[in-house]
């Protein structure tokens, strides 16, 4: 049937992509597509340096903090609603209820702009990629997406659904959707300015650091902060050494 | 001169005694809280004086780190191929780099506090993992430590930020320079990085 053949084709395409990635030499474990990823990463970095970072810096300089916080709250609030749904999909009714309460409290009493719930109800963001992970789907190869940055095969699939749950998905007018989407990107970027500054200065290999940070964070998120204990790789040499201390 | 030596020894002993026989999670909580309080209360640090944070980290945190084990873990199998002279230089540069990394993280501290998560008993009683949450508004930041018993004290030999172990991250980052030009290339790269970090204002 038609649906089956599309799924089969999609699966074969994905498998071919993965195998093609594995065929390329080099690359670290979990990153068979490293050579391609580095190219996209460099492109994103260039775009960030030339366009996004200057705009976000200006945004931060021009708008007072309470305005920026309100905007951030607006987008976070939508995210809380979507997180509640994902908690439910993952079989966590208590967490779903809490995030649902957060969403309603902030929408009704905070009008979407004030985080009334605050630290009283802890934010536990969930997206569809995490839901897929919870359902048992492994992340697959690390992927750097153009513009969007670090992802994985699984999380990119999750993104297809996440995109429908953001505020910018809802307005009828295309111009409004673009305006909201742009604001969202700038708001998020501005929030990350000081952290990325520290990262830029410290990293010997920014690509590696971003990748490892992303993969580790996703693993934590899927297991809600309590991943199964990872075996510690053995030290190269015994620690009682002849080297000077 | 002799009196100074005696005082020095007394102070050292007092310091060591302060930490002796502390449980690893109590130790981590105490150390983290001390460091964060020092950062929060120091006006110069809050104004952006990173050099001061580095001095703080060197004085307060480094004594509790098993630097040797950390650098060996971060460099990986190629450590064995290095001469004693290279190992010494690499350890020195790594130490400076580690201080810079930790200091960089501390520049983000404004109003945080630390909570320790309940410890899970592992197979080896002399090696433990202690998990902490650095709490502010919003999501808490997970910061974990691997510690080993050294006499009656505990020493940190790895730390983890939101799931990523530092030595693993360093190993992946260092591997590029190592495969490009071996140990010397790594030493040069670290030295260069440390110099540019020292020169930058904040």
Instruction: Describe the sheet with the most strands of chain B.
Output: 5 strands, antiparallel
Helix content of chain B: 55-70%
Distance between the termini of chain A: 70 Å
Principal-axes shape call of chain A: globular
Radius of gyration of chain A, rounded? Answer: 21 Å
Helix content of chain A: 55-70%
Biggest sheet features of chain A: 2 strands, antiparallel
Rg of chain B, Å, rounded: 18 Å
Structural class of chain B: alpha+beta
User: What portion of the residues of chain A fall into strands of 2 or more residues?
Assistant: under 5%
Give a short summary of the structure:
The complex is a heterodimer of chains A (245) and B (202). Chain A is mostly helical and 245 residues long.
Account of the protein in words:
The complex is a heterodimer of chains A (245) and B (202). Chain A is mostly helical and 245 residues long. Chain A contains nine helices and two strands, in the order αααααββαααα. Chain A has a two-stranded antiparallel ribbon. In chain A, a hairpin with a 3-residue loop joins strand 1 and strand 2. In chain A, helix 2 crosses helix 7, helix 3 runs antiparallel to helix 4 and helix 5 packs across helix 6. Chain A is globular and about 55 Å long. Chain A starts with a helix and ends in a 23-residue tail after the last helix. The C terminus of chain A is likely disordered. Chain B has 202 residues and is of the alpha+beta class. Chain B contains seven helices and five strands; from the N terminus they run ααααααβββββα. At the A-B interface, helix 8 and helix 9 of A face helix 5, helix 6, strand 3, strand 5 and helix 7 of B.
